[in-house]
UniProtKB/TrEMBL annotation:
It comes from Channa striata. Residues 90-109 are annotated as: Disordered. This is EF-hand domain-containing protein. Keywords: Calcium, Metal-binding. One of its GO terms (cellular component) is perinuclear region of cytoplasm. Residues 100-109 have a biased composition (Basic and acidic residues). Residues 90-99 have a biased composition (Basic residues). InterPro entries: EF-hand-dom_pair, EF_Hand_1_Ca_BS, EF_hand_dom, S-100_dom, S100_Ca-bd_sub. The keyword Calcium applies. GO terms for molecular function: calcium ion binding; calcium-dependent protein binding; transition metal ion binding. PANTHER family: S100 CALCIUM-BINDING PROTEIN, S100 CALCIUM-BINDING PROTEIN W. CDD domains: S-100.
Amino acid sequence: MARLDQVITNIVDIFLEYAEGEGNKNQLNKDELKKVLEQEIQSPELKSKINAGDIEEAMEMLDKNHDGEVNFREFCRCVCDLAKCYYHKKTGKGGKRNKSKEQEGCPED
C-alpha cells in the first residue's frame, strides 16, 4: 500500500476502533479520546501539543460543536493540526503571522 493510502486508512481505522467503545459509535467521548491520545501518540514533540493528562482542555479545543464528543471531522482537524506542528518543527517554518500561536503550542495556517 502506498504511504498516503496507509496514512488515510490508519486515521479512519484508529477513529473507528476507539469510537466503538461506549456511547455513540461514530464519535469519541472523553474517555475514548483520552485513550487515543495516550496510546496512539508516542512522539514527545507531538504528545506535548495535546496533553492527554488534561483531557478537558483537549476536549474543549477539539469539540467545536460543543456536543461533548469528538466527531470524525473534529478528529481529522486534530490530526491535521498535529501534522502541521510536525511540519513546522521539521522545516523550522512558522512565519511572523503565526508567532503568538507558535508560542502557545503550534501555528495554524
